[in-house]
Amino acid sequence: VQLQASGGGSVQAGGYLRLSCVASGNISSVNAMGWYRQAPGKQRDMVAIISYGGYTDYADSVKGRFTISRDDAKKSVYLQMKTLKPDDTAVYYCYVQTRSPAGRISDYWGQGTLVTVSS
């Protein structure tokens, strides 16, 4: 399974970006999908998660500004980010959890896409 993320870039504070991530490979079923981020010198933290049924969870720091969505037909997950702040600067990683027909759960990560927000 491979994850290809795109959409990162450099914006000024208050701007917006939309991240996309598409999964490919031998995928029988996708459970949760999401986005994590890692700022320089910090650990990787959850930004937003969306379950197979559409339940969403967000980090407190992005609630009201970021929106996660998924398209199961395209095996894709998206992150709409608005009112970006310098503190949002980080490498953003997409995450996909799959389930095999036998019930085996596997986690996959994308290669990361850099988001830089200048003040």
Break the fold down into its secondary structure elements and pairings.
Blueprint lengths: L1 E5 L2 E4 L4 E8 L5 E9 L5 E7 L5 E3 L7 E6 L4 E6 L8 E10 L5 E5 L3 E6 L1
Parallel strand pairs: 2-11
Antiparallel strand pairs: 1-3, 3-8, 4-5, 4-9, 5-6, 7-8, 9-10, 9-11
The gyration radius over C-alpha positions equals: 14 Å
Task: Describe the largest sheet.
Answer: 7 strands, mixed
> Helical amount among residues, as a percent range?
under 10%
Oligomer: single chain
Average pLDDT for all residues = 95
| Low-confidence sequence ranges | none
C-alpha end-to-end distance = 37 Å
How many β-strand runs? 11
How would you spell out the order of helices and strands? EEEEEEEEEEE
The percentage of residues in β strands lies in over 45%
Throw out a few tags for this protein.
mainly beta, 119 residues, 58% strand, single chain, elongated, 7-stranded mixed sheet
Short account of what is shown:
With 119 residues, the chain is an all-beta fold. The strands form two sheets. Strands 2, 4, 5, 6, 9, 10 and 11 form a seven-stranded mixed β-sheet that branches. Strands 1-3-8-7 form a four-stranded antiparallel β-sheet, with no helix packed on it. Strand 4 and strand 5 form a beta hairpin.
Give a description of the structure.
This protein is mainly beta and 119 residues long. The protein is built from no helices and eleven strands. Strands 2, 4, 5, 6, 9, 10 and 11 form a seven-stranded mixed beta sheet that branches. The chain has a four-stranded antiparallel beta sheet with strand order 1-3-8-7, with no helix packed on it. Strand 7 (66-71) and strand 8 (76-81) form a beta hairpin. The N and C termini lie far apart (37 Å).
